[in-house]
Amino acid sequence: MKTNITPEEFKLLSEKEKIEYMSSIKNIVNIYTIYDRVAEKIGTLFTGEQEGAIVRSFEDEIKNERNGDLFKHPEDFELWKIGEINMKTGEVTENKKIVAIGKKPNETTK
Hints:
Structural class: alpha+beta
Distance between the termini: 59 Å
Shape: elongated
């Protein structure tokens, strides 16, 4: 069963299908990666449920000087959501989108 259906499609489901659908979406977790635009490759895959929290963590990592290239060249990196995984069934759904783009922190002048 698809994990992202429209309200109209939901209305057409039988009661049993509605219950199965509601149960399945509770097990859905997003899959993310950080893409390096200069190297033209993705990094390690990781999962998360709340996109806002993932974006905040990405922005925090860019500001952390211990993170090497990510700190030195934040504009070279993008946070991508590449799909979703159903943790109960293992089914993966592709859904690639850019969630955030690295930016240099604003520099203040004295």
